[in-house]
Structure to design on (158 residues):
């Protein structure tokens, strides 16, 4: 099997890895770079558990090949907190009990972060639309939406 050398930036750090042609970015993150916060829920791009940003664009890492990461800037859930300081979204998810088993949580957090970076003052409908690509099998979405709206208010200083 042919392995390809890839150079990218992950969570602000320059990384290099070898991957096979058919290996997904999700597999590379989890198996080659040992960043296991990004989860596999479906492997078909339907659940959002594997959401990361690539050059500022939200993507399902199960649908992107690792070799496509060449020269790209990737952000994963591991890059969300700053040391011991949780990102405001992470804090709000805890405060609002917006998680249960946790498999979907990294994807929801990455999607919410992307949403708020592009729309710092979303309506409830805009939050629901922005998170629509993420599925939770344990709970309703009300607490998640409330956590995102609360985080947006705090981030705006409202």
């Amino acid at each position: 099997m042919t392995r390809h050398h890839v150079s990218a930036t992950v969570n602000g750090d320059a990384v290099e890895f070898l991957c096979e042609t058919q290996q997904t970015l999700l597999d590379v993150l989890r198996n080659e770079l040992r960043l296991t916060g990004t989860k596999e829920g479906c492997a078909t791009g339907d659940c959002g558990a594997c959401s990361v940003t690539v050059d500022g664009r939200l993507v399902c890492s199960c649908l992107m090949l690792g070799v496509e990461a060449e020269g790209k800037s990737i952000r994963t859930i591991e890059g969300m907190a700053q040391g011991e300081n949780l990102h405001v979204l992470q804090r709000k998810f805890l405060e609002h009990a917006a998680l249960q088993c946790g498999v979907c949580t990294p994807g929801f957090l990455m999607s919410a972060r992307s949403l708020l970076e592009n729309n710092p003052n979303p309506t409830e409908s805009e939050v629901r639309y922005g998170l629509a690509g993420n599925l939770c099998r344990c709970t309703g979405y009300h607490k998640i939406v409330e956590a995102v709206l609360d985080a947006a208010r705090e981030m705006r200083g409202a």
Notes: The chain has a mean pLDDT of 95. The first helix runs from residue 25 to 32.
